[in-house]
Amino acid sequence: MSLRFLPAVALGRAVRVAARLRKAGGGSAVPGLVVNRVAPGFLGATLSSFPEGLVVVTGSAGKSTTTKMLVAVLEAHGKRVFTNPSTANISQGLTSALLERASLTGRIDADLAVLEMDEGHGAALSDRFRSRLVLVTNVVTDQIDRFHDSEKVLAMVGRIAATATGTVVLNGDDGLLARLTPTAPVRRFGVTAEVLDAAPRGLGYAETAAERSDGVLVEAVRGREADVRIDGAATTVALPAKGVHYAVDAAGALAAAQALLGDAFRRDVAQGALAAMPPVFGRGEVVTVRGKRVEFVLVQNPASFQLNVDELDEGLEQVLVAMGSDVRDPSYFWPADASRIGRAIVVSGSKADEIALQLIYQGVQVVRIEPDLGAALDHFLALPDPARGMKTIVFTADSMRRTRSHLGLAR
């Protein structure tokens, strides 16, 4: 790195201070927007500056959890890792995250970087960096207002995978990913046929077993733990939340960690790291607000909606469902069967009427529709503690951010 980025870094930091003075906890992407405009070479140069390389985690679903798992395992092995903990995975967010740790010359004191990257933004940036390892979680028709179909997503993750000089780690149960032919060696992870068959309504994004891994394989899932076979050796690992999809995330993270660490990889160290890892915010996270314990369940597409709803405890008494402006076309979620919710005591968000209609058609009792999310949250938290189960909020990404802001929780 050189002094040529000093003015841009100084400007970005000044913008960050101004944004936070204007709104506490806000404006996190603004510094990145400014720096990318005045110094377009900063992002690529900084990504390429880590002594042990750059690791990219991309795909339609599971990026945030897989990234956090991989970072936890690497740090437990003594690696100094730079990552984007706020799940800022688009170009301006990545640049803002780099500014948080970069010196005035643009250097970051870490051994390697492990970054979650949005498929579209990562593909657009792919000619600016080379990566040591790329992990692709899966390909689904996600964010249909942006990506339209899975073929487009496959092309984008293919461009990101082409940046890898060391290893490409792929979900071996994703039929579309089986069509990728990166120049770097490929390592796969997946689940056994028994796990796939036992998963509620299938894995959603992994319904065609294209090429099963003999490296890291999920053999069984029991609540918040999974049996994983790593190169023939069985290991039980803890999961941050219930569900086969979290076990698949763990398998991907373990496969990537093993590829990066080589002979230094230790299963017991990885096992301890995953056991100590808290949930990524919103994904099975349990918080205490206003004296009430509440579980947050984030759903972002039909597959994650189905998988997460299927893992809800039966007979929950108090569930709030919120769909926000991030869902441009609520009919996108109709293929998911939400009947397990049973009773939604409040339905909220800017798309409250649309998600309430789906719930009612699927046999869910909807007690109250309150489009004002703040009012809905206040009502929900004021209710007496349920006699059975925990207060549970099922929300999409926009409603998650608004919920956390309204309740004064960290972003």
UniProtKB/TrEMBL annotation:
Coiled coil: none annotated. One of its GO terms (molecular function) is ligase activity. Pfam families: Mur_ligase_M (PF08245), MurT_C (PF08353). Residues 298-379 form the Lipid II isoglutaminyl synthase (glutamine-hydrolyzing) subunit MurT C-terminal domain. Keywords: ATP-binding, Ligase, Nucleotide-binding. Gene3D superfamilies: Mur-like, catalytic domain. InterPro entries: Mur-like_cat_sf, Mur_ligase_cen, MurCDEF_CellWall_CoF430Synth, MurT_C. It comes from the Bacteria. Residues 57-195 form the Mur ligase central domain. This is MurT ligase domain-containing protein.
